[in-house]
């Protein structure tokens, strides 16, 4: 499966010769993310000359989206916003790209293989389904997202939706001032390339040319759309449901071997709150997050107060104190548990035990219950972060904490807020 990439700027990637089998012309590609098991890839491609190839069958579900320049498919020329979806195993028509064209290019469930055919009358693969889609997305109207979250202001253009798996590709625009004060995780993966604008969130700054690939269930959020709003080409390998978390906390620790005060071994624990103390968000950013909270409340949602991560009460300390209290209460009065330090010097004349009724500690949901029912048994059992089909009424799995994504060196800004 693909690694978690969050958040990276395309300028951090090196150029490679484009892997476009059977074509004529010169092109280079930046490999945004790659699945080394099946060849699935998300690529940024630049054409240095006119480039083209004739009809053929792709070995993967293949998508082309024009960022700048023009593409001609089957004799139809489309400029910026042009989109072609060619399912694997289905004959696709000739395609060309003009010199200087810049595109996003996706291959899913297969590699760059391409078999030339004489015409579109060539037989399809036995398991092929769907048909080629050709769209001029710039000519489409934006539709309001039916369930935009805590605030209106999200708009969408659907480019492709797989009727069987729910896999879908869409353009999404968040208008200036749109915000979501909560974190979210999903049953499917989510990836996006920013085509316009500026948005801030916990993993960094989404501006032109930034990219992420986030496996299923990885927690993310606290979105605020800044001046001019923001637009992405966004893909998911299934229907996207939002499962929300608010006022999160993280604690991690370890056991030192050769470092510590005086150079000795030590055990240590640190909270993400201990990295805070000073707000890392602008006043405008915070104003939009507070507006998101108030809108949610105005719609009848039960929402707690929004506290910027790292600045509120450290819930991990409360949990630790609760655990210590429970451990003490459960200790009992065994012969080694304590020494009264005195002799009673008398016979009570009756039996009494030192047993105490221990109050039950409420730890929330049982952790083993917070996973997909097939998490340890299905074909994805050993793939961390793999998506599963989910429908209303199924158990909702807990989010995955991902603190080790691939991050941008040049422009990404990551501050640990809501890992």
From TrEMBL:
Positions with biased composition (Basic and acidic residues): 333-359
Region span, Disordered: 330-360, 396-419
SUPFAM superfamilies found in the cross-reference section: RmlC-like cupins
Lineage per the UniProt record: Bacteria, Bacillati, Actinomycetota, Actinomycetes, Streptosporangiales
Protein name in the entry: DUF4437 domain-containing protein
One family name in Pfam for this protein: DUF4437
């Amino acid at each position: 499966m693909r690694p978690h990439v969050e958040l990276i700027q395309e300028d951090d990637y090196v150029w490679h010769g484009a892997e476009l089998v059977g074509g004529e012309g010169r092109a280079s590609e930046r490999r945004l993310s790659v699945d080394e098991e099946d060849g699935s890839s998300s690529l940024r491609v630049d054409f240095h000359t006119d480039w083209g190839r004739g009809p053929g069958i792709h070995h993967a579900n293949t998508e082309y989206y024009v960022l700048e320049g023009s593409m001609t498919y089957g004799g139809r020329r489309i400029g910026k916003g042009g989109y072609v979806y060619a399912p694997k195993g289905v004959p696709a028509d000739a395609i060309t790209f003009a010199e200087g064209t810049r595109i996003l290019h996706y291959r899913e469930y297969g590699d760059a293989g391409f078999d030339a055919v004489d015409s579109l009358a060539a037989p399809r693969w036995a398991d092929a389904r769907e048909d080629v889609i050709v769209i001029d997305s710039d000519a489409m109207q934006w539709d309001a997202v039916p369930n935009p979250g805590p605030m209106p202001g999200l708009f969408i253009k659907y480019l492709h939706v797989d009727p069987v798996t729910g896999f879908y590709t869409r353009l999404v625009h968040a208008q200036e001032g749109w915000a979501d004060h909560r974190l979210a995780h999903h049953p499917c993966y989510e990836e996006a390339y920013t085509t316009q604008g500026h948005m801030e969130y916990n993993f960094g700054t989404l501006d032109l040319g930034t990219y992420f690939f986030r496996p299923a269930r990885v927690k993310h959020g606290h979105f605020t759309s800044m001046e001019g709003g923001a637009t992405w080409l966004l893909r998911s390998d299934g229907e996207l449901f939002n499962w929300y978390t608010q006022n999160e906390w993280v604690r991690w620790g370890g056991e030192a071997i050769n470092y510590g005060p005086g150079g000795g071994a030590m055990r240590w624990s640190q909270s993400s709150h201990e990295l805070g103390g000073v707000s890392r968000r602008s006043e405008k950013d915070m104003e939009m997050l507070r507006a998101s909270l108030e809108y949610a409340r105005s719609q009848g949602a039960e929402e707690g107060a929004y506290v910027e991560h790292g600045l509120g009460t450290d819930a991990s300390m409360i949990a630790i104190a609760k655990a210590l209290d429970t451990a003490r209460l459960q200790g009992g009065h065994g012969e080694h548990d304590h020494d009264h330090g005195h002799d009673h010097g008398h016979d009570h004349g009756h039996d009494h035990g030192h047993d105490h009724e221990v109050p039950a500690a409420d730890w929330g949901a049982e952790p083993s219950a917070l996973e997909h029912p097939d998490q340890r048994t299905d074909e994805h059992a050993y793939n961390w972060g793999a998506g599963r089909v989910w429908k209303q009424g199924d158990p909702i799995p807990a989010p995955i904490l991902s603190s080790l994504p691939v991050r941008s060196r040049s422009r990404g800004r990551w501050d640990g807020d809501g890992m």
